[in-house]
Amino acid sequence: MHYCGITPLARHQPMRIINDQSSIPLHRQMHRLLLFLVLTALPLATVADNDSEPLERILESARAFLTETLATDRNADTRIEIGRLDSRLQLRRCAHPPTAQMAPGGRTSGNTTVNVRCNAPVSWSIFVPVTIERYADAVIVARPISNKQAIQPSDLRIERTEMSRLSRGYFSDLESVVGLQTRRALTPGQVVLPGHLTQPRLVERGQLVTLYATRPGLTVRMKGIALEDGQEGERIRVRNRSSKRIVEGIIDPTGGVHITM
Question: Which superkingdom (predicted)?
Answer without folding.
Answer: Bacteria
